Amino acid sequence: MKQYIRKADVILLIVLVAIELAATAVLGLQRGSGDSPAKVVIKSGGSVYATYPLGEDRTVVVPAPKQISVDGPSPDPNAEASAQYDYYNVVIISEGAVCVSEATCKNKVCMRHSSISHPGESIVCLPNRLVVSIEAEEGGGYDSITS
Fold this sequence. Notes:
Blueprint: H1 7-32, E1 38-44, E2 47-53, E3 58-64, E4 87-94, E5 97-103, H2 109-112, E6 122-125, E7 130-136
Antiparallel strand pairs: 1-2, 1-7, 3-4, 4-5, 6-7
């Protein structure tokens, strides 16, 4: 009877798992030790709506125009400008974390997303064309993922 798994295969598997665990630990420590301040960038409809420091607690209501929201009816060109925003998201920045607490979209996936707190993470609401992301303050450089 042939033996398909040899002793060398088991040793190789153990070495590869050990390398993977070590790499995960190192990347986790590098990611958690970021002393640079981060900023929250909120984009609505493809353009930057606002930028706030991550350490500053605030609540932001981000409107999505009817022309942009997928869930909304097609816009009435004769409607008043004050009635233009029926769709919105409420973004809460609190204690170094960001979440979407309220949304007028149908599926509410953005509300069920866990809070984000590290550069590179994001929350997206596709129907309202909202992207909330965290970026490092200095930006443009390499991070632990790309280095």
